[in-house]
Amino acid sequence: MNKKVVFQCCTPFVLAPRRSPFAYLLRYFSTQTNKRPTIQPQRKGPSYIVHKKPSFPTQQKDERKAISKVEGERKPDRDMPHFLRKKTLKEKLEYFSQRGDVERAEMVAEKMPRSIFKYENLIVACGRAKRIKQAIKYFNELKKSRELPSIFAYNKILSAILNGEGNIEEKFMHVIDEMERKKVLMNIETFNVFMKGMIQFARFDEAIEIATHVVKGEDTNLTGSAEVCKPDIATWSLLLTAHGKKVLREMKDTGSVTPDLQVVTNEMRDAFKGVLDVWEEMKKLRIQPDTHFCNTFLNICRSANQPSIIFEVYGDMRKANVRPDLFTYDLLVSTCYKTGRVSYAFDLFEEVIKKDLKFDLRLCNSFLRVANTNVKTPNQLDEVDKIRKNVLEVMRVQQIKPDGATFDILFSSLGRTKNLEEIPKYWKMMEENRINPTLHTYTALIGAYTEFNMIDEIQNIYNKIKESGAQLSAITVNKLIRAYKSANRFDLLESFLQDIRNQSSRYTNSHYEDKK
Fold this sequence. Notes:
elongated; mainly alpha; 0% strand; disordered C terminus; 68% helix
């Protein structure tokens, strides 16, 4: 009997050597008493046996399904950005509302009590996501609560309506009428949103009237108890935009916009007087303009074909120490292209390089268009060549990927500067960037080869156009006719005109059959 007991106690030590005797004794007594004690493991020392609680995967899945049904199958908190996990609910709601993430904003708002802050941020989120009906729904829920909507909520619902589509003017004016009935005190943001709405609805006179009252510090009488507000730079920008839009509409109706940018008539000066008065008034009051205001002014001047005013305003920007951005330079460079100011564009390119600004594709294409101008002097030819090479080098260094318009401009400029040896190089770049040639590309190549009467290359391009099945544009037809005439190839001209007749007849017959 004693031997049998000794055999049972010693069996664990005989069967498993190189283990701690304490662990095997623990296993032995646990099997005898049918208990499974748990011991926390230590980081150092002998290893202990840890008996974990059994996991039940089916039970966990059932719990997850129940949670997903309650939350409406929304994303759990683990999908939330890492830096937001330790933030408060208010901070999370503000973050998602500014980004226009309506789903996550609603998920956070469900955990918060009913408050003005909650509904205001939900309205902001819906406005940024252009969900106007949902924004109006939350605004109506806020009005049904005990707490009245704040001026911030009214401003955000007005901004959300302006971002929508369809008949938004009626909804916008309905909110304005409600504010008048309730005699809500407006702040400067309310006036700015109201002016923005009037400009969007093409009611420029009303926008100018309300902005003039705000700028002069007068009572606007927009509500029963209006508040005299101090204008900010956004107010001046909206006043300038209203004057500019009004001027452009009048010029379009009267046909006073001249295509020649060098000519500035007295009628245009008189029509442009309201825009210039805003600029002069700001100078008198010593109001510091910002980049957005100056870009708005430059864009209005470019649309009204006022290049002299554009460069004058840019000079005032330098004096006021306003830092221009890429859009400012794009406006200036496009004006240089239209007016043929190659030297000024070259100075602007060096200025951008000195300020260490990162180019974008739009600005690069604008500089390349300057290289496509009709140069008259050898000095301008050198400047144009430098601009093209420097822009391509900047695109290579800053890894700016060109598009089809980039190569269209390059091929067109090579004919003007007589650098046809670079055409294979740019064609190879086009293939490396996997850009397929379009009708504009072929038209630019025809214009380049026409300068040297390279009729064989022109004919090859025309054959490629016919193979692609593209319909010829008026510009392409005129360039081909000019190329055949300059090369005295009237036989090719006659066959080309015959192709055009056949193509037009086919188009007419197909159009007639479609109508039948």
